[in-house]
């Protein structure tokens, strides 16, 4: 399917975005491994999160009925796609999910391979969880996920005592869980997925597990563990967890996904509109893209209103935008904006001067080769971009109009659509259906806010 975007209009109003899928993955795992009942509200019905729920249903008899029912019955819109919005269109569907857990000791060996779909977060976090359970499991994924590197999580889990076999460094991953020993591990590549996997394994291991980061990454795992009562210490770029901890049931409302909000913020900035996203996660490890936007001339405001399982939640407002200008995103910054690079790069096509994303090789091993995909997409839409070594360079000459292919990547699909709002002529974005991976209802929401976007076969 493709989206036809006609430039003009405005993207304004007050809106909610789907629940944060990074947080949802982790809270689902914690609910299935809790001793007792957990109640989760605001889980996003995205494909990635449903992959985690489906896998957990296969290893937990107690949690299975609720997880299978939630995944199977996630609402759909009038076109048959997974929907995020209630009947009034005023916000996300927030059907509560109650999960009965029997603790980590209650996990059972699955009868078939655990299909993680396109979700690297599902595969890596589940690998950490299952490595500490005395059972055999196999984690598989789609063609895209099967190309992503998995030795970065398999190797440290082996060092803790698990038997972990990859397929030439990729999925499928075979895991024979056993009693683990805590380790002190240095991440060669800063990644919250691997850090989270090791902390999930470490909380069940003997002794202390320490993960050292070369650069800060999102800290959702350690925030949740700390709120649940685990002993967590963070000092000088290292996070440690004491093993032998078992948590009980809990309640939480998943904050709105600030990475999804970034696409709406960019749309508002490009159309000169006033937009407020309410109930969104304001975790500091997820907000560096706002600093990049400020350097580019987009001013935003945030206001924290409450806390959910260690996560600050509040409102994000696009306050004002001046003429957009190019900037440099350094190698040290890149891990802090890795999910926002597609939308920042497409926003940069409308800026004055060049924007550089330095040492962006990690983009090649995301859901697609985003480094090449972003550059090719910008060229297809009538802009100018190129790759120099491992750097992505975007020239802010505007978009003349044209066609871009999302290449099966949800973030590129949304970034291309948003940038097309300020193009000189209509744009087509092929593969727009991939937005269901993280932002079901994205196109209808854009339309409701004032954008001229049509989905066609």
Number of strands: 23
Our Rg estimate from Cα atoms comes to 21 Å
Tell me about the biggest sheet?
Answer: 4 strands, mixed
By DSSP (H or I, 4+ residues per run), the number of helices equals 13
Stretches with pLDDT under 50, minimum 5 residues: 76-84, 86-90
Q: What's the overall geometry?
A: globular
- Percent strand equals 25-35%
Terminal-residue CA separation = 5 Å
Question: What is the assigned CATH homologous superfamily of the largest domain?
Answer: Enolpyruvate transferase domain
Average residue pLDDT = 93
Q: How are the strands of the biggest sheet laid out side by side?
A: 21-22-1-23
Instruction: Report the helical percentage.
Output: 25-40%
**Second rung of CATH, namely the architecture of the largest domain:** Alpha-beta prism
Structural class: alpha/beta
Number of domains: 2
- Looking at the structure, the CATH topology of the largest domain is UDP-n-acetylglucosamine1-carboxyvinyl-transferase, Chain
Under the CATH scheme, which class of the largest domain?
Answer: Alpha Beta
């Amino acid at each position: 399917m493709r989206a036809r975007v006609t430039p003009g209009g405005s993207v304004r109003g007050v809106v909610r975005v789907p629940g944060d899928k990074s947080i949802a993955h982790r809270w689902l795992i914690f609910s299935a491994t809790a001793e007792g009942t957990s109640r989760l509200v605001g889980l996003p019905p995205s494909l990635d999160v449903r992959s985690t729920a489906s896998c957990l249903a296969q290893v937990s008899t107690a949690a299975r009925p609720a997880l299978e029912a939630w995944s199977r019955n996630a609402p759909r819109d009038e076109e048959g796609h997974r929907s995020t919005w209630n009947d009034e269109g005023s916000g996300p569907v927030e059907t509560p999910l109650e999960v009965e857990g029997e603790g980590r000791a209650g996990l059972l060996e699955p009868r078939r391979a655990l299909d993680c779909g396109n979700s690297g977060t599902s595969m890596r976090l589940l690998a950490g969880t299952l490595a500490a359970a005395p059972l055999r499991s196999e984690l598989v994924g789609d063609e895209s996920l099967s190309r992503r590197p998995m030795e970065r999580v398999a190797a440290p889990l082996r060092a803790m005592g698990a038997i972990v076999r990859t397929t030439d460094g990729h999925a499928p991953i075979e895991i024979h869980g056993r009693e683990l020993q805590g380790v002190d591990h240095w991440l060669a590549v800063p990644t919250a997925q691997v850090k989270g996997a090791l902390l999930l394994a470490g909380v069940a291991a003997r002794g202390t597990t320490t993960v050292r980061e070369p650069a800060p990454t999102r800290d959702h795992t350690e925030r949740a563990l700390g709120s649940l009562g685990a002993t967590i210490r963070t000092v000088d770029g290292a996070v440690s967890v004491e093993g032998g901890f078992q948590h009980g049931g809990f309640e939480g409302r998943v904050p709105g996904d600030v990475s999804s909000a970034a696409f709406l913020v960019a749309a508002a900035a490009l159309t000169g509109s006033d937009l407020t996203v309410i109930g969104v996660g304001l975790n500091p490890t997820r907000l560096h893209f706002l600093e990049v936007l400020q350097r580019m001339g987009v001013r935003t405001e945030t206001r924290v209103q409450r806390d959910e399982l260690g996560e600050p939640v509040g409102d994000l407002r696009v306050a004002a935008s001046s003429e957009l200008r190019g900037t440099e995103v350094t190698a040290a910054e890149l891990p802090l904006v890795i999910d926002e690079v597609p939308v920042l790069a497409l926003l940069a096509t409308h800026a004055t001067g060049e924007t550089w994303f330095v040492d962006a090789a990690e983009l090649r091993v995301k859901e697609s080769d985003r480094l090449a995909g972003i550059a090719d997409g910008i060229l297809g839409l009538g802009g100018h971009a190129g790759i120099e070594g491992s750097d992505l360079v975007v020239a802010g000459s505007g978009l003349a109009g044209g066609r871009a292919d999302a290449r099966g990547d949800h973030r590129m699909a949304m970034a291309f659509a948003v940038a097309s709002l300020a193009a000189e002529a209509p744009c087509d974005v092929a593969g727009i259906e991939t937005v269901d991976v993280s932002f079901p209802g994205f196109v209808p929401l854009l339309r409701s806010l004032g954008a001229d976007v049509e989905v066609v076969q």
